[in-house]
Amino acid sequence: MHVPDGFINAPTSAAAGVVAAGAIAVSLRGARRELDERTAPLAGLVAAFIFAVQMLNFPVAAGTSGHLLGGALAAILVGPFTGVLCVSVVLLMQGILFADGGLTALGVNITVMACVTTVVAYTVFRGLVKVLPHTRRSVTVASFTAALLSVPGAALAFTLIYWIGGTTDIAIGKVATAMVGVHVLIGIGEAVITALTVGAVIAVRPDLVHGARGLGQRLQLRVNGELVDAPPAEKARTAPAAARTSRRTLWLTGLVTSLVLAGFVSFYASADPDGLEKVAADKGIDAKVEDHAAADSPLADYGVKDVQNARLSGGLAGVIGVGVTVVAGSTVFWAVRRRRTDAVSPASTSV
Amino acid sequence: MGAGHAHRLYRHGHSPVHTLPPHTKLAATFAFVVVVVSTPREAMWAFGLYALLLAVVAHRARVPAGFLLKRLLIEVPFVAFAVLMPFVAEGERVDVLGLSLSVNGLWGAWNVLAKGTLGVAASVLLAATTELRALLLGLQRLRLPPLLVQIASFMIRYGDLITDEMRRMRIARESRGFEARGVRHWGVLAKSAGALFIRSYERGERVHLAMVSRGYAGSMPVIDEVTATRAQWSYAFALPVAALVVCMVGWIL
Amino acid sequence: MDPVSTASLEVSGLAFAYPDGHQALFGVDFSIARGERVALLGPNGAGKTTLVLHLNGILGGGTGAVTVAGLPVGKRHMAEIRRKVGIVFQDPDDQLFMPTVREDVAFGPAAAGMKGAELEERVDRALAQVGMAEFKDRPPHHLSFGQRRRVAVATVLAMEPEILVLDEPSSNLDPASRRELADILRSLDVTVLMVTHDLPYALELCPRALILSDGVIAADGRTGELLADETLMRAHRLELPFGFDPRTATMGA
């Protein structure tokens, strides 16, 4: 499912990159609030677990086998924030180390496989756990449904991205049908394994299942075979009450910023800035594209007019678009980073 | 995953490419791929030139062609997808060997294949010439959020350990005569996955204790700082800049 | 000299219950003078680990006090306390979390703000103390278990602790590694508190022993005498290995 380079056009990839960056920034803050200074080792180990579990093959029928994607599992076991971080880090490392998934498509891959799967899975899971009676069976049912929906959900998100910035003109209905169809099948496998795995964890260490908390269980550390309460957990327990509102505003701001940026950039990304979606042939493409760009692009009167060659003007708009998104993305990162380092320094003295 | 210094894709060497600071290589690779992706697909010759540029880099890095080509196999699932494109895409159709193919689809397939292959080749070259540890330092230097780099570094440190634990659990299962053959055995495999999660999580907690005991308070001390000179930057950026020239020409023509 | 001011570690009236109501420590009192090597013996579930986690303030909030070199363990001096109390955990893989041996050993001092040549020098010295200098740039997971345990000791020595606390230092070691570690520990000029089940090892290294049982110090005396007291040993579920007689064994210390 890893998208390679060249599958999605540059501006859309950049927009997806900004969405991914925003989601990661939000998750970094969220995970830190949930796990405190334990974020790095715990999320790192869970990422290693996801990485390992993706290599665990589940035989389907004679000769064929599938493997777990792990987004839903991560969301349910360690919560949506840490889940997004873990899957993103796995994708980042796969992209850089194994060339699995293109570097420019990293944003798309993270948005689809890390963000959409975890958010869909966690929302469905929490919703079901709230509605269903408080039993272990409900948790299993909820994980099954959550994982089942998360995979086609990701497929739909991919279709949407493809619709905005796909490099080949395939009827969107066809893409959606094919993607969702195949991924419903994959989703069933994912759902069964996720539900069984969550069930296995809940049977032994129910306190470790993030999504099933709220039954009054406390976080514990197992130290050399003894259960020990983690002192930071108490700090975290008192903090969220005050922090909840600010977290929510942060969530919303992050989300809205990402969406606005994404919408803005992809709006004129779909206005054909890279000229890739048309075959350059004998179809009087120049005039057409010029019309197109002038009509739809918010950057239409952005000096691009002066450039006579329509293709070049489209390209310029694309480059500007990429530039804007890169600047915006860096600003988000920079702002978050600064705020976080500010937040860290008092914490480090109080530990 | 072969974690630590010698991951599976890394080829030890002392070429000029190996010795470049990691962050310059990361930035250059990324810039190169961005340029490739932004090239119009009709400029077929441009992609040939890109491939040539990569071949030059591979030569300088003393990465043999066979090694590079073998690593390209990771792309195969998408080749299958690309082959389908001409059949399902919309628009004008042509007849090739009796098959009705979409012109647009053919272009799309070419686009994905060319760009995807160049992207994979660039990443493979990066991974082949950069140690894992250096990659992390490079990411850190490129201002990736430090927490993310920490998570990645823990994942790499413990990836082997956990994969190994998984392997031991499999051996334990198989020694007791269990072999997963079909859907009916998913329960057992899922139990293993659950146990693996608990072990991973508990190890995370113990690692955290060990870190706190040595003065960890939420941020990693900076032990190694990688730096690059202007000359190193320009050497690394020779590739994307050359590619950019090709790309520009491709747009204008 | 006033014994209180020279004590490396002073524990008085320490009681602790976990929030779930399970009480692990019921008033622990002991004191370890500077330069002493003391074994902390006790059956499983006696509260040994709970006690160890109090020494550097990871656990706290009960009654009683822990003082390290005259400094009370508490939030005010936490960074200083964690530098002074070096805990070597049981599983070296939990302790060695950085990508290379060098960075791992540097972690503690770097977290305390040390850098540059001073840091390098500190790392080299600590590695030399455990005889692992030539493994400086290796990733920890490429070392043998015994080597990893020695590096784990070095990570703590690099912080130049007031007291070295070892949790089951001899577990999983083959006889040669066991002896090598004993030689290293004997050569160190530092206060040592060794938590162990390994009674011959305790006798070999520590002139004095404490027995922790049911959350209190049940006995405190010369290791040889305690091990020879069969009634005492049996009362606290401590058993000597087959054929081992503490009266005839020669003490290495």
UniProtKB/TrEMBL annotation, chain A:
Keyword Transmembrane annotated: yes
Residues annotated as domain PDGLE: 248-338
Main location: membrane
The entry's keywords: Cell membrane, Membrane, Transmembrane, Transmembrane helix, Transport
Transmembrane segments: 7-28, 40-60, 72-97, 103-129, 141-164, 184-204, 250-269, 315-336
Record's subcellular location: Cell membrane
Membrane topology value: Multi-pass membrane protein
Gene Ontology terms describing biological process: transition metal ion transport
Any matching Pfam family: CbiM
GO cellular component assignments: plasma membrane
PANTHER family, A to Z: METAL TRANSPORT PROTEIN HI_1621-RELATED
Name the record gives this protein: PDGLE domain-containing protein
TrEMBL record, chain B:
First-listed, main subcellular location of the protein, grouped into a coarse class: membrane
Organism listed in the record: Streptomyces phaeofaciens
Protein name: Cobalt ECF transporter T component CbiQ
Matching Pfam families: CbiQ (PF02361)
InterPro entries: ABC/ECF_trnsptr_transmembrane, ECF_CbiQ, ECF_transporter_component
Gene Ontology biological process terms in this record: cobalt ion transport
Transmembrane stretches, start-end: 43-60, 72-89, 109-130, 233-252
Alphabetized UniProt keyword annotations: Cell membrane, Membrane, Transmembrane, Transmembrane helix
Keyword Transcription regulation: no
